[in-house]
Specification:
Blueprint lengths: L1 H23 L23 H6 L2 H11 L4 E6 L2 E6 L1 H10 L5 E3 L3 H6 L23 H8 L7 H22 L8 H18 L4 H16 L12 H28 L7 H7 L11 H32 L1 H16 L9 H5 L2 H13 L5 E6 L3 E3 L2 E3 L4 E5 L44 H18 L2
Parallel strand pairs: 2-7
Antiparallel strand pairs: 1-2, 3-4, 4-7, 5-6
Helix pairs in contact: 7-8, 7-16, 8-9, 8-12, 9-10, 9-12, 10-12, 12-13, 12-15, 13-16
């Protein structure tokens, strides 16, 4: 028996290695394919452990030095991934969105932000992980709902947002010796998202959702092991609770809406809008999934950005004084209690340049994933159909050709022309530029105005 177990323990890894080799090997159509340089790492997990737990800049720079500064391959939990580096790589992805590439999410996100809506068969691939890809048509219906994120709509949000930010600072910042900036920023941005996306003003429920969303965020960049005691297990439990709360809100909204009540928020729009692919109303579970995805975007990236903005301002008094001067100039022209206006937000040039520089040095998101819809070539290498493609801002943020003296914190680099395209892209680019870009900018600047005026 001992000999059998010993033999089995030796043979099993070999079997898995052979299986992964054949699973990742692209199907030949009679024409030789030149795959990018790189390594698929260990059986099953590939290089996922290094990708998730190692310093991301080091993970990238090590492989760029070892394999290629423009393109290399890796394997993340059985998914073959081609990493494209630099501005040219990002431009290639952004310019070929929908023709060559479609949106794709890693396994952890697929499970946390699941959806029963399937992609059309024409764009599906042999990869089993593609079954939870989000169709472009459905995503447009939800994230780009008519009017909600347009400038003319955001103009009307400014006063409401201004009041909510002031109330939050009064309750959670003013008079406090110590403030957990990240957690309080999460609570603030979920308060705003809850109001604008769902018409939610229940402060106790908002705080509960903020705590649950925080657990979900902690489970994004980990191995998707749904085992008690792991971050991912806690995230899955939290995601289930968030869905349940959103579905309760949906039920509460349906009765007055059926009686003719008009509700101006994205959740109400989604309840009343049919699925464009079927003509039937979306299931409550699907609506809850989509709203949870929207909340995560409004909750996570801005709170990370605010945390680092506050850190950089605290470490650089000369930068802080310039931001404060700009904000006090605006405040001096206003009556006591008078809310900010869109026009005033629009002249906060230096403050926004500070935010952009912070987001260059501490990107709120590390990169973007896509899936190849067809076999394509880049830099003389083949990217097989169904393989995943990844681009990360880490490959450009410290490039002196893109940012002279890249280690220097210099908000003035954005004052005139700014950096080259496809370099500092905290809100994405091309057809998939974040529809909430102006909304995020509004949140950050409104917060900065009041925090430097009242707290620091």
């Amino acid at each position: 028996m001992d000999n059998f177990l010993l033999s089995f323990s030796v043979i099993l890894p070999i079997f898995f290695a052979i299986f992964i080799f054949h699973a990742l090997k692209p199907k030949s159509n009679g024409k030789p394919e030149k795959l990018p340089p790189g390594s698929f790492g260990f059986p099953i997990v590939g290089e996922a452990i290094s990708f998730l737990y190692q310093n991301h800049d080091k993970f990238l720079s090590h492989r760029m030095e070892k394999h290629s500064s423009t393109i290399f391959k890796t394997n993340l939990l059985g998914d073959p991934v081609v990493v494209l580096c630099g501005t040219a790589g990002h431009k290639f992805i952004a310019s070929n969105e929908l023709q060559i590439f479609q949106s794709w999410r890693p396994q952890s996100m697929q499970k946390l932000f699941r959806s029963s809506i399937q992609p059309p068969s024409s764009s599906s691939s042999s990869s089993s992980s593609s079954s939870t890809s989000i169709t472009r048509e459905t995503e447009k219906q939800i994230t780009r709902a008519p009017g909600f994120m347009r400038t003319d709509a955001l103009v009307h949000y400014v006063g409401i947002m201004d009041g909510a930010v002031q109330e939050h600072l009064k309750n959670h910042w003013v008079g406090k010796e110590i403030v957990n900036v990240h957690r309080q920023a999460q609570l603030l941005f979920l308060t705003l998202a809850g109001r604008f996306f769902m018409g939610l003003e229940d402060s106790a429920l908002i705080e509960k959702l903020s705590n649950l969303m925080h657990k979900i965020m902690l489970s994004l960049d980990v191995l998707p092991l749904n085992v008690p005691g792991t971050s991912f297990y806690n995230g899955m439990k939290a995601a289930k609770e968030v869905r349940q709360e959103i579905q309760l809100l949906i039920k509460e909204k349906k009765t007055p809406m059926d009686n003719g009540a008009q509700m101006q928020d994205i959740l109400s729009f989604m309840i009343s809008r049919p699925d464009p692919s079927t003509g039937k109303p979306l299931l409550d579970a699907d609506v809850a999934d989509k709203v949870m995805g929207l909340l995560s975007g409004a909750f996570n990236s801005p709170s990370i950005s605010i945390s680092f903005i506050m850190k950089f301002l605290g470490e650089r008094p000369e930068i802080y004084e310039k931001v404060r001067y700009e904000q006090l100039e605006i405040a001096s022209s206003k009556q006591v209690g008078e809310a900010l206006t869109w026009e005033e937000e629009d002249v906060m040039k230096y403050s926004w340049n500070v935010a952009l520089e912070v987001m260059r040095l501490r990107p709120p998101t590390r990169g973007l994933f896509r899936e190849a819809l067809t076999l394509t070539e880049y830099e003389g290498y083949t990217i097989p159909k169904g393989w995943k493609v990844y681009w990360t801002v880490c490959s450009t943020k410290m490039d002196p050709e893109c940012f002279p003296e890249p280690e220097k914190f210099d908000p003035t680099r954005y004052a005139i022309e700014g950096p080259p395209p496809y370099t500092n892209v905290p809100f994405g680019s091309g057809p998939r530029t974040c529809p909430g870009k102006d909304y995020a900018r509004l949140q950050i600047l409104t917060f900065l105005h009041h925090v430097v005026k009242r707290v620091v």
